[in-house]
Amino acid sequence: MALTPQLLRALQDIVGPAGLVVSAEGRLTYECDMHTFYKGTPDAVVLPESAAQVAAIVRLCRREHVPIVPRGSGTGLIGGAMAPEGGVMVSMTRMNRIVELDFPNRCATVQPGLINLWLSQATRERGYFFAPDPSSQMVSSIGGNASTNAGGPHCLKYGITVNHVLGLEVVTGAGEFVQLGGKTHERPGYDLTGVMVGAEGTLGLVTGVIVRLTHLPEGVKTILASFSSIEDASEAVSAIIRAGIIPAALEMLDEVVIRAIEEGVGAGYPKGAGAVLLIELDGPIAEIEAQSGPIETICRDAERALLWKGRKEAAGVFGRLTPNWLLQDAVVPRSKLPQIMKEVAAIGARHHLVIANVFHAGDGNLHPLICYDDRAPGELERAKQANEELLAACLALGGSVTGEHGVGLDKRASLPMQFADSDLNFMARLRRVFDPDSIMNPGKLLPSHPACGEGFRPAARPLPAGTWI
Amino acid sequence: MALTPQLLRALQDIVGPAGLVVSAEGRLTYECDMHTFYKGTPDAVVLPESAAQVAAIVRLCRREHVPIVPRGSGTGLIGGAMAPEGGVMVSMTRMNRIVELDFPNRCATVQPGLINLWLSQATRERGYFFAPDPSSQMVSSIGGNASTNAGGPHCLKYGITVNHVLGLEVVTGAGEFVQLGGKTHERPGYDLTGVMVGAEGTLGLVTGVIVRLTHLPEGVKTILASFSSIEDASEAVSAIIRAGIIPAALEMLDEVVIRAIEEGVGAGYPKGAGAVLLIELDGPIAEIEAQSGPIETICRDAERALLWKGRKEAAGVFGRLTPNWLLQDAVVPRSKLPQIMKEVAAIGARHHLVIANVFHAGDGNLHPLICYDDRAPGELERAKQANEELLAACLALGGSVTGEHGVGLDKRASLPMQFADSDLNFMARLRRVFDPDSIMNPGKLLPSHPACGEGFRPAARPLPAGTWI
Q1: Under an 8 A CB cutoff, do A335 and B102 touch?
Q2: Nearest by CB to B188, which of A176, A192, A411?
Q3: DSSP string, B68-97
Q4: A242 and A202 Cβ atoms separated by less than 8 Å
Q5: Which pLDDT tens digit goes with each residue over B368-421?
Q6: Structure pTM?
Q7: A179 Cβ neighbours under 8 A, 6+ residues apart
Q8: In which element (H, E) is residue A356 found?
Q9: Nearest Cα residue in chain B from A169
Q10: Whose C-alpha in A381, B55, B325, B361 is 20 to 30 A from the C-alpha of A255?
Q11: How close is the nearest chain B Cα to the Cα of A93, in Å?
Q12: A330, A387 Cβ separation under 8 angstroms
């Protein structure tokens, strides 16, 4: 869709000339997020500097029936922060300030574009940090983390993003300001903070976030445990949790990934092992010592920075494994880990594909890496088929078709595998409460499905402002 | 409203003769919850034994435009589980089973009528407990705890009920089954678990709850600290939190309450003190020892059971203080405790009323007890005025008009003090997604206010089933 000169002028009146990108080369930067299968260039990109500007943009786009695609740093892995149908992309990168650090109440108020790691850097010397640590934390934004409900290795102990968001300021798809949650523990009325966290920009735009600050632990200890098979490592995960120990992180890497990391990075992982677990304990030093005893019977100590370098650069070495890959994200209850690892191996064997594994074992959050070569006839199709079987296997074990990455464009079609029609219909009706004209990130999250009504394309005619839906 | 013989017969067909209460004396039991200001007898009480029966009841009542009032154990303090307009009360007391204990995944699936304490009793020998511990835990139900998002002394460390609910099975006001959340950490789509927790039965009926189980701590230590004034004790609360210590519980009792408890129970509290703090530490024994050092400089050890007996029986000794009382529930950010305690004292002095204090200091959750004698002319009016000023003072400090008890009938009128019209309108629209005909617990939670539309009385005409609202 082409935007009218009047609309572009009105956008520029709101954000100023420096806040509007309309050139083809400028817009190209925004054609996709980190899931490069999906591309779509917005017709314009606006970079607001205040919540008031955001509200003005939404009201304008609503009046003109133009889709809005919110974007943080664009590091998402599910095709969520791109514009499949064009429209106006709202980039939050200029709204990147810390508004308030409130140490007595252990919270911070930040703008949505603030880089995740910056908050921990700004609070470290006072003894605090922001706990959710997606691998992208050096570049991803807290608003984007909230919109995708991002996870990370240390979320096993500290919880995922939703557990650290106390309140949100939101401009809904109707152009209204709504305050959700706040600094105090509990508030009257419906608790909508959790609905907005993980909504992937389909309900509105986050313009402010109140997050919990966490005390830095007194000590940290990282343990590497190696196993002859990934099934044995999976059993160990269950045994550790059963012993009442919740490590800060509990990450699994399989044989294929270990070898690739050792060749690419050299982190000191044992090359002959069938799998390794990276186990991190933190907290009071006395507690770490008490917990590491039972774990160390199967482990040896190692150097922390190097161990994490291997894990965090795993994605960088995938190119050594395979010409093409599909990084899946799914979940099983963690007691089912040994079972799903057998199934993953069986699916790989059945389709003659290497499936590598590096994942958040403590959470039961798998990231099977399906390796294929799209120049080999039929291999892409086999990879897609293996992918479908993988998701179905997770669901059959009581799991979920997405873990920490979200739905976006990529998993939309999988939602009917997990939800009844009545659940989908319910979500679609909820979406209309926030976004009556379906202008917010259309085509994302909810599937094209009869239970979802019109599938959330912009409505043919606008509803009068304030209409009761 | 009188129910037709046809409707009563249809209800009996669903729940059987033993599950239907229609006699006047039988219904009298259900005329109020623990807030005895508000009374209203339901026209019938049904006691379903399965989720399918619950869904059949809702569909029947929806068709006939009869209000539904859900009820757990009836221990609420805000007039939520009573029937101001008659209608059908749905009591969950016969749906009180543990459906599954899943220790490897640290969770339990329970029916809504299960008594809170029973779950901890059933899991203790395996080393687990259910952490939310409202003072009513020996009699209140987990479904009721979830519907009011109940707190409790140990929620400071362990979080409130919403932090322990992983998933819910719900029959909405439209008579549909909806699954919210589940055993795995994260799921695709909108996270509606938090919306249902604390919705006080206004969106639907909870028919199943998946809750988190928590490991029993290795050790527990309870410390009593006495202070010359409540302001000094409030400063100590801030100092403890600032030191990076989150006790399991941190409870405040003022001079008036200490005296009443000592006369009534004899818990060994120091009668001359201006205030005491009850501080409980739990966890690994080494951690407790490390944390108690900084606290003990202002404390003396004491016997745990007796200390808690005093705190938990505080409500029982209020009769010694005053002929009548109003127990308020409000919140301030905990850094504002010293300030609000000064204001509470000033409000009491201004209105010539004793205001006693016993509360969850660590959470900033106040329970001022406004003492009055309704036989003394004008005293009730002064108490009500003091109450209004108290809530306004909490809001002015960035707090909330309700803490752990909820809204119900009692706080409805206060909501417009805390929320903008757009927020109220938003909640009303959300309510209609779940409950299109406004049959669920009408007259509760949302105020009669233009922003809430029709104020959620049963609709004049039913909408056709499946209508898009």
Answers
A1: yes
A2: A411
A3: EEEESSS--SSS-SS-TT--EEEE-TT---
A4: no
A5: 889 999 899 999 999 989 999 999 999 999 888 888 888 888 888 888 888 888
A6: 0.82
A7: A167, A168, A169, A170, B419, B420, B423
A8: strand A355-359
A9: B423
A10: A381
A11: 25
A12: no
